[in-house]
């Protein structure tokens, strides 16, 4: 059953139950506490008595007294007085005699129905009878305690009276119900919207953003939903980006591996079949095979690095090391490698020891990566610079070249995995190197920065804290 139907049903049932309960309790309390006379019974008693009196030949005391006594025995709470036309008592069931003035008698008639509830005053009713043109009066009185106390029993004598209290009563019953119905239906509407929005959450399309500024639980739930939907969208974007990267990697990899492999196979077959003309050609062929194999080896190394980083298994073994010594060794390697090539190499490493707590092999890999890039992508500048500077608790490693550089718009993506300037050129890498460098630097709680002015200077600056 849907919530609105359930609410209507509950409301209806509770209205019926509460009304029944109200009436039943009213009647019950009436029965328990409302014993006594009401106006109707008093009138009926008087009427019965007047009928009996009417049967008598005269209305004198000796004729009337037995009737009054008989009724007094049946109704001991009631006092009956038989009054002659001059206002004097002919008989009083209380045995008293009075002489009522005309005003006193007239008052009884005038106040009859209105003056029923005087605090301590007895309630009196007056009736008149006539015999042979002579008026007589029957006075009936009783204490207010002997009357019924219940409102229902006493006041509800006409439909008008009934409406006068039933309408307010019904209204007071229904208003809370309608208010709670309104509350429930607004809650229901808001939950419905939330439900619909949740149903449509999907990683492919934008989620519905719900507006609910109220501070209650549903408002909080709506805000949680909004932030959850945004998170899902963000994560879906990241997954999509990652997937695209993987696809790109696979297609680049198959291309980048196939090209050198084809060359290796071609040259190896030539050598194997003895189809080279002289020793020189053999040397050249084997040099190409060696170069291409090294390139493939490097690619596979990078792939291994990626796999390690993906599995969060970049193991880092920190120990104190002399960084200037490590940097001097790297510089010497590259000077040897570039010897005879039109490259000028600038080395700016202090002679004294620069101690830092690092993983030496990881830092060496990062620096070599930057140096390889400077040679590969910055070769137009024919310059390679390597430096080390100590700045208080921080050491700075600098690798620079004067080649084509990196345009400002590429700076924010350059350390992202698989990113290659201009989508990459033939024979260039997979766009992994700089992302690995960044991971290594950050695993040392360091920071990497790029400053590049194309064809003037491109500088990579690694800042590492000396002690972790
Ligand atoms: P790869 O592993 O393919 O070399 P990197 O992450 O090392 O990729 O570099 C990403 C891109 O950054 C390269 O494709 C290249 O275009 C650019 N790049 C990196 N270093 C330099 C540099 N010193 N000068 C110019 N461009 C560079």
UniProtKB/TrEMBL annotation:
Looking at the keywords, is NADP present? no
- Matches recorded under SUPFAM superfamilies: ATPase domain of HSP90 chaperone/DNA topoisomerase II/histidine kinase, Homodimeric domain of signal transducing histidine kinase
What sequence ranges are listed for the domain Histidine kinase?
252-468
Does the UniProt entry include the keyword Ligase? no
Q: Which residues form a coiled coil?
A: none
HAMP domain span: 185-237
Matching entries from SMART domains are given as: HAMP, HATPase_c, HisKA
UniProt topology in membrane: Multi-pass membrane protein
Q: Where are the transmembrane segments?
A: 7-27, 162-184
Its localization reads: Cell membrane
- Look up the EC number in the record and give it: 2.7.13.3
- Identify the PANTHER family for this entry: SENSOR HISTIDINE KINASE YCBM, TWO-COMPONENT HISTIDINE KINASE
Q: What is this protein called?
A: histidine kinase
- Organism annotation: Paenibacillus contaminans
């Amino acid at each position: 059953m849907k919530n609105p139907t359930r609410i209507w049903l509950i409301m209806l049932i509770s209205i019926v139950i509460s009304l029944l309960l109200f009436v039943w309790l009213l009647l019950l309390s009436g029965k328990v506490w409302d014993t006594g006379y009401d106006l109707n019974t008093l009138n009926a008693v008087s009427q019965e008595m007047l009928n009996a009196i009417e049967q008598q030949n005269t209305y004198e005391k000796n004729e009337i007294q037995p009737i009054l006594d008989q009724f007094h025995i049946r109704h001991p709470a009631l006092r009956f007085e038989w009054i002659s036309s001059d206002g004097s008592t002919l008989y009083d069931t209380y045995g008293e005699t009075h002489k009522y003035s005309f005003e006193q008698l007239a008052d009884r008639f005038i106040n009859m129905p209105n003056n029923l509830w005087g605090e301590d005053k007895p309630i009196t009713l007056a009736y008149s009878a006539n015999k042979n043109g002579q008026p007589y009066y029957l006075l009936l009185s009783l204490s207010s305690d002997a009357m019924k106390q219940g409102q229902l029993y006493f006041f509800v004598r006409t439909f008008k009276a009934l409406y006068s209290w039933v309408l307010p009563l019904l209204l007071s019953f229904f208003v809370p119900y309608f208010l709670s119905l309104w509350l429930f239906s607004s809650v229901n509407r808001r939950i419905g919207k939330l439900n619909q929005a949740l149903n449509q959450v999907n990683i492919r399309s934008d989620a519905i953003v719900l507006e609910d500024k109220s501070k209650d639980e549903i408002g909080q739930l709506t805000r949680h939903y909004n932030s959850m939907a945004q998170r899902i969208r963000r994560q879906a974007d990241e997954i999509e980006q990652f997937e695209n990267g993987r696809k790109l990697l696979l297609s680049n990899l198959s291309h980048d591996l196939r090209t050198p492999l084809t060359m290796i196979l071609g040259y190896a077959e030539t050598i194997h079949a003895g189809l080279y003309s002289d020793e020189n050609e053999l040397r050249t062929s084997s040099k190409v095979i060696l170069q291409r194999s090294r390139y493939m080896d490097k690619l596979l190394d990078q792939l291994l690095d990626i796999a390690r980083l993906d599995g969060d298994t970049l193991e880092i073994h920190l120990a104190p090391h002399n960084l200037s010594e490590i940097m001097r060794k790297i510089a010497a390697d590259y000077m040897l490698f570039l010897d005879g090539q039109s490259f000028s190499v600038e080395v700016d490493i202090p002679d004294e020891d620069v101690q830092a707590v690092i993983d030496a092999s990881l830092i060496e890999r990062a620096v070599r990566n930057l140096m390889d890039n400077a040679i590969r992508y910055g070769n137009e500048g024919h310059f390679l610079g390597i430096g080390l500077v100590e700045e208080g608790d921080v050491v700075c490693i600098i690798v620079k070249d004067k080649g084509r550089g990196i345009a400002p718009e590429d700076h924010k993506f350059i350390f992202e995995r698989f990113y290659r300037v201009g989508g990459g050129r033939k024979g260039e890498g997979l766009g992994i190197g700089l992302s690995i460098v960044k991971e290594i630097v950050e695993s040392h709680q360091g920071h990497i920065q790029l400053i590049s002015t194309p064809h003037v200077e491109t500088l990579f600056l690694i800042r590492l804290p000396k002690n972790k």
